[in-house]
Amino acid sequence: MQGRSSLYNQGFLLLEKPMDSQQSRVLVQLRDLILKGEFVPGERLAEIPLAEKLGASRTPVRLALASLEHEGLIEQSPGGGYQMRRFTSQEIADAIRVRGVVEGFAARLLAEDGASRQLLRELHECLEAGDKAVNKPEMDLDDYTAYVEMNDRFHKLIMQGCRNVALQRVMEMLDRQPFGSPSAMLPMQSSMEEGHQWMKQAHRTHHSLVQAIERGQGSRAQALGEEHVEIARMNLDYALERPELAAELMPGLRLVSKARG
To answer: Which helix (H) or strand (E) holds 69?
Structure first.
């Protein structure tokens, strides 16, 4: 237990003390590899091979692994060190729902406290970019990419604009979970036309959310924020029911079990 406690404390030290550039880079690289499905559940994450793969020394790798365990992305290995863990669909669905609650409350704060002109201008720029991507007979890959970039920016603006540090920290934690980011579970239907319709629906909610913020409708803004993530939850179910499609578009999904608990 002493070793586990020591590593756990290292994880807290990572949060309390600024990381040097190499340590930060290694942490970002490792997290990215995990979320892209580079490792399979149960695979041992050894320091030396990882250090060689990332072109880094063992110390930043060791500290990054401790931090990733603290985030819940990896777990202690029975034989010592760390291994890749498996996530349940229930865990992911719960994280998506929590995102809705957090973003909904952030939107409510914006509506009740008042959003700055600059923030509203940037939100409207997002709406216009989204309109350009989805309001056409067919979407191509460039349109999809543009929508993803707009969607990520839109949600970041809501969180930054609410100026609630506690909410922002919770969102940072959720962003580090598999498929926890705003665009991680965007429509991935086998039919491009079907996915296009889902994106239109999601973007209509963006419009309604900005309207509620501008009108000071706090309760409505919160409800819309919570409702908005239901599309992501439905797409998680869709992906789990069609693993052959998910494997190509979302390799990290192999870390997720269909088990609901």
So the answer is: helix 58-71
* Domains annotated on the chain, with CATH: 2-85 (1.10.10.10), 88-257 (1.20.120.530)
Distances (CA, A) of 95 to 14, 43, 171: 23, 24, 10
pLDDT given at position 17: 43
Q: Are 133 and 147 in contact (CB under 8 A)?
A: yes
Contacts 24+ apart (CB under 8 A), 119-126: 119/157, 119/161, 120/210, 120/213, 120/214, 122/153, 122/157, 123/154, 123/157, 123/158, 123/210, 123/213, 124/210, 126/150, 126/153, 126/154, 126/157, 126/206
Tokens 């100026």 belong to 163
Question: Distance between CA 126 and CA 198 in Å, rounded?
Answer: 18
- Give the number of C-alpha atoms closer than 13 A to the C-alpha of residue 234, restricted to the C-beta side: 12
Which pLDDT belongs to residue 232?
A: 78
As a whole number of angstroms, the distance between CA 15 and CA 22 comes to 16
Give the global pTM. Answer: 0.70
Averaged over successive runs of 10 residues, the pLDDT of the chain (261 residues) comes to 40 43 82 82 93 93 91 87 88 87 96 97 98 91 83 94 95 77 58 73 95 98 92 74 60 66 53
